[in-house]
């Protein structure tokens, strides 16, 4: 009982961003009042995880939210444990079923087995069906919610020219989509990247706080979920509350709500309406097409044990490819230049001249348009525990064919480099 009580008090602080119970009550009162006027229902697929014994149902129901749990028996695993792709399907189908019975049901989430990750499904008003959200999409929504929360609470303030007065940053890992950079730019906050690994991102956030930055939200976009300060781990309940705040902290006669703040700061005021839904919020997110970390094409089996050597061979291949493909890249992708970046631990190194310097860390080729603005990247990093390389592509826009073309190009170059390196050439 004491551990549940401590978890409840801590969750309230994380959600509200303040330690004082009276201030927390004010925020929860706003959420609860809106849920009374605009009911929301949520389906939680616990998949037999540790969250079956957590506070989710109690804290959400206490606000008046309509809550349904499936696969809620501890230890009874109903499907694949990674909350991505097909693992979201049972929740999606249940949400569609409940939505027909009660239109308030518009949101669902699926946990992994230790209960620290949760990805989302939503009822899409435009498609008139439930659909799964990508991990990068979920993290982007959380960033919008928590940055807007800082503005709403006057923690992030602006001068008359619209420049941020307060130093705020987001800490992410190297394969987090650039849609987060676009969101950060709208709020005039900084983005810092570390190597893959939750400990690296948490460590980077702590380092930034010692430098005077307020880092409320951090995470690994490709992995899903989010970390909201003062928490130092992912927690699905924090992800759910980020979306609930977007939906329920609405504009009043005297103060704009979270969604209106986001629309204003991102110069999308024409997309704001007072009767907005979750689908309306998602439609305002920056458009990027990004490889899922869990799709088959994102993983390459390799023979080369020396990752530095492989990246050295890859550099030769990439430079050759750049010369032969630059005209096609310009016409097809609006790509005119590039920069290599390495990620090791908490460190990001730019303008890398020797790709091998990335060692066993992440290596990113960042592409720029004619005006010098970043518009795509390809990325790679070898696993520290198995003979695989993870690869991905991220490209501005909604054309998934472009993402696939960049990804397949990256796969071919890495496999060619592996063949050279493993043969000792």
Structure description:
This protein is an alpha+beta fold. It has three domains: 38-133, Alpha-D-Glucose-1,6-Bisphosphate, subunit A, domain 3 (Alpha-D-Glucose-1,6-Bisphosphate, Chain A, domain 3), CATH 3.40.120.10; 134-286, Alpha-D-Glucose-1,6-Bisphosphate, Chain A, domain 3; 290-419, TATA-Binding Protein (2-Layer Sandwich), CATH 3.30.310.50. Helices cover 40% and strands 20% of the residues. It is built from twelve helices and 16 strands. The strands form three sheets. Strands 10, 11, 12, 13, 14, 15 and 16 form a seven-stranded antiparallel beta sheet that branches. A five-stranded mixed beta sheet has the order 2-1-3-4-5. Strand 12 and strand 13 form a beta hairpin. Helix 1 (2-16) packs across helix 2 and helix 5 crosses helix 8 (236-248). The radius of gyration is 22 Å and the shape is globular. The N and C termini lie far apart (63 Å). The mean pLDDT is 95.
């Amino acid at each position: 009982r004491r551990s549940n009580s401590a978890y409840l008090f801590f969750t309230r602080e994380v959600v509200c961003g303040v330690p004082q119970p009276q201030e927390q009550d004010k925020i929860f009162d706003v959420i609860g009042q809106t849920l009374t006027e605009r009911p929301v229902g949520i389906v939680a697929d616990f998949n037999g995880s540790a969250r079956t014994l957590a506070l989710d149902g109690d804290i959400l129901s206490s606000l008046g939210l309509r809550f349904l749990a499936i696969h809620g028996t501890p230890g009874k695993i109903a499907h694949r444990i990674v909350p991505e792709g097909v693992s979201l399907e049972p929740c999606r189908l249940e949400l569609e079923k409940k939505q027909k019975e009660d239109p308030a049901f518009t949101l669902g989430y699926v946990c992994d087995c230790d209960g620290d990750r949760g990805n989302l499904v939503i009822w899409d008003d435009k498609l008139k069906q439930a659909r799964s959200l990508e991990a990068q999409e979920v993290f982007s929504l959380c960033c919008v919610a928590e940055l807007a929360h800082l503005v709403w609470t006057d923690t992030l303030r602006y001068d008359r020219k619209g420049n941020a007065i307060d130093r705020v940053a987001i800490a992410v890992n190297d394969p987090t989509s650039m849609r987060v950079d676009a969101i950060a730019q709208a709020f005039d906050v900084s983005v810092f990247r570390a190597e893959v690994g939750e400990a690296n991102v948490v460590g980077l956030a702590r380092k930034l706080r010692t430098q005077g930055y307020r880092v409320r939200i951090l995470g690994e976009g490709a992995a899903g979920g989010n970390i909201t300060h003062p928490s130092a781990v992912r927690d699905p309940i924090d992800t759910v509350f980020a979306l609930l705040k977007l939906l329920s902290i609405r504009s009043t006669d005297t103060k704009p709500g979270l969604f209106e703040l986001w629309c204003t700061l991102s110069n999308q005021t024409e997309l704001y309406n007072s009767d907005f839904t979750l689908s309306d919020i998602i439609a305002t997110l920056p458009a990027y097409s990004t490889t899922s970390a869990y799709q088959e094409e994102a993983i390459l089996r390799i023979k080369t044990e020396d990752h530095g050597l492989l990246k050295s061979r890859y550099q030769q291949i990439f430079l050759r490819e750049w010369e032969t493909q630059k005209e096609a890249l310009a016409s097809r992708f609006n790509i005119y230049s590039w920069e290599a970046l390495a990620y090791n631990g908490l460190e990001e190194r730019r303008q890398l001249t020797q790709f091998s310097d990335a060692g066993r860390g992440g290596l990113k080729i960042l592409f720029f348009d004619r005006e010098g603005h970043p518009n795509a990247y390809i990325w790679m990093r070898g696993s520290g525990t198995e003979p695989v390389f993870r690869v991905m592509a991220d490209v501005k826009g909604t054309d998934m064919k472009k993402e696939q073309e960049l990804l397949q190009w990256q796969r071919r170059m890495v496999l060619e480099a592996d063949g050279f390196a493993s043969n000792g050439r």
